[in-house]
Fold this sequence. Notes:
Layout: H1 4-33, H2 40-66, H3 69-77, H4 79-87, H5 90-93, H6 99-102, H7 112-122, H8 130-156, H9 165-180, H10 193-223, H11 226-244, H12 249-266, H13 271-276, H14 280-297, H15 306-313, E1 316-321, E2 326-328, E3 336-342, E4 345-348, E5 355-359, E6 364-365, H16 367-372, E7 379-382, E8 386-392, H17 393-402, H18 404-420
Antiparallel strand pairs: 1-8, 2-7, 3-6, 3-8, 4-5, 4-7
Helix pairs in contact: 1-2, 1-7, 1-8, 2-3, 2-4, 8-9, 8-10, 11-12, 17-18
The protein binds adenosine-3',5'-cyclic-monophosphate.
Amino acid sequence: MHTATGSSRRMLWEITTAVITIYATIEIPLGLVFSGMRQTPVLVAEALITAVFVADLFYRYRDASAGGPEARAQYLKGWLWIDGLASIPFGTLVATPFRALRLLRLLRLVKLLRVSSAVNRLKNVQIINPSVVRMAVLMFWILLTAHFVAIGWIALDAVDRTHHARAQYLQAMYWTSTTLTTIGYGDITPVTPPQTIYTIFIQILGAGLYGFVIGSIASLIANIDVAKTQFREKLERINTFLRYRSIPGELQTRVNDYYEYLWNSRRGHEEATILDELPLSLRTQIAYHINSEIIEKVPIFQGAGEQLIRDVILNLQATVFLPDDYIVRKGETGREMYFISRGSVRVVSGDEQTTYATLTDGQFFGEIALLLATERTATIRANDYCDIYRLDQETFNRIIERYPGFAEHIREHAEQRRQEMGL
Ligand code: CMP
């Protein structure tokens, strides 16, 4: 088990190594093409990179060992190579006149794999929209690719690179961006054969990359709010159907209002269908979580035993009623009782001339017909949108039988209500 401080320390370390890795990724290739720039500060930077990467190696090893021998073996077989390779300060060790050997320095960049695996985990953190993370990652890789392409262009450029490093890098970046985006002004053009070959290669890469980026961005934008997109599509399908069947305008408005309520109150999800797909254990936990709100609201559940609450929770079914909907009609047979989570209903006589009561959040109704096995004693209509939980008769009977204290409570309510109605 990782403690909270442990995990935030780990996060801090991940961020530190990521920043250092990105810095190394930018700096090392620059050092290769502008070798005159390798003065003291750069060497200090290399020492810092080495220190952090070596520390990271030990940190990961210890972390893996803490996870047991299997985790350690897995680390030794896999990531160790990458962490180890990245820790070697080739820039300091390989001070050689052979240019090709200096390319060894680039090996350190394997550490980037670490960053991408950390970012992948970031996608699972629920606070940030995964599409936003993906978009940021895409931008990062594009910029990094452009950086490498520009470095390649500089490497092939024959001019003296010690004095105008900044201007030259800027020019190379400019060439890269016009080429990669397939704009190609043509004001900077290849002169030598290697440059021409490089340009052809980058042009082909640019065409592919451009298509890939445009496609990715389109799909990312579409996916930023999948739920909303799907909900809108569903609503459009329903409206097409309503128009096709010439449903009266007023009823169409009511349907649309209902869906608007569904979106505002629960992001368009019908809880029952979502839960159906889950295995029982998960369904139980989620039902428990969703329904605990109603349990907290309903006073008769307060002080009730945990077992009772569990029994009730798993059998509650959420439903929505629209303004003026009939929830219960006097004289009908009762098959369920209701708990109000949100909204208000009015209890009226059969002819709707007398209002007996208004019930709101946390109150219940429909218990009389179940308790006494009689017809509904009153009519109940919604005043506004109501989130209501239904409890079926079978569960109700079982609970009444099993929990006499609770049954007594409900009976008292029912008796009082019957008296109020003069029954
Ligand atoms: P039931 O008879 O099953 O259906 C109608 C419901 O209205 C009834 O159960 C009670 O839950 C509720 N009810 C009846 N009278 C009153 C009242 N005076 N105050 C609050 N609720 C009532």
